[in-house]
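Need tokens for this chain, all 152 residues.
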Amino acid sequence: MTQTLSSIGSAPLWRRLAAMVYDSLLLVAIAIVISSLHLWLSITLVGEAKATAVGFKWDLSAILLIGFFGFYAYFWRRSGQTPGMIAWRIMVVNYEGRTISFKQCLIRFIVGIPSCILGGIGILWILFDSKDQAIYDYAAKTEVVLLEKTKK
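Here are the structure tokens for all 152 residues:
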């Protein structure tokens, strides 16, 4: 099934959440790959005892954060859709209906982290907002639209 880029309005909350669940599975896979490479490199450089010591790994956290941002920035800049967004026919665009800039990706990602972590308040804002926008959409000057189905 292909889709057109004609939007039919704001994407409903349930579609956004479904896309987030879909994308989170891909992010888990990315985290496994990054963590495995980090562990292998750490063991190679500092030895097994130090590499596997219990404690918070700041370097790994930073690399994971960069990897997750890279995932979103790549897809949002390329087509405005992550794989989860494609599956649920939603797209993030700027106010002119075009793909978002790198700066907008960064703002959306940075504001989106606490928005989601703090009980999801940033995305649940959609329920109370007249424009159906999340907090991070306002911050980045973006909107998430629902795409029409293509007729066969």
